[in-house]
Amino acid sequence: MSEEMLSAVNRYIDYNPLKFELRYNQPEFLAIHEPLAAWRLSTEEFWRGIGAVDLLDCDKPFIALRISRKLSPRQVNEAVARIRRRVGDYIFVSGWISPGEKAVRDMLLAEPRGRIVQILPSAMPHDFKVGSLWLEAIRDRRAAIIARGNSEIEFSRAACLEVNATAVRVAGKAVYWLPEGPKLVS
After folding, report:
1. Cβ pair 168, 59 in contact under 8 A
2. CA distance linking residue 101 with residue 29, whole number of Å
3. Which of 8, 80, 108, 139 is 20 to 30 Å from 180 by CA-CA measure?
């Protein structure tokens, strides 16, 4: 058995009781909310969400996050460390697509004060299943996953750029992390 397979089995065992608890004793945590209405979302579009969708109406400042794929592993670690220091200050919004964004996502999901919103690049199917990493954060009301529309969109560069643009509209401001460092975009 490979290390990767052993890790997957351990994650399944670790998260299975929490998944059972949420699914059968607190189903509202995993229920899809539709249509989703929040002052941060366009009223001209149909939205679905799962988890702590009330985060979208929170007064805490939001920040959209993009991390370039061109960052070295060392630069990604530096970005994660700097963002970790600001965990309680913002609700972070992204598609969490690039390797650097995924590293920040995983850190935010593990941090007890981390608040996070993921925007899916395509419609959220009615049978959407939340990944194990998200379960504790959803239970603790610090994570939401949202998607707009009713149709599946093939993932592409254009879809990625649209997710990033939507994150900026939802948050109102963004940090774009480039190899030369972070750049604030309003």
Report:
1. no
2. 24
3. 108
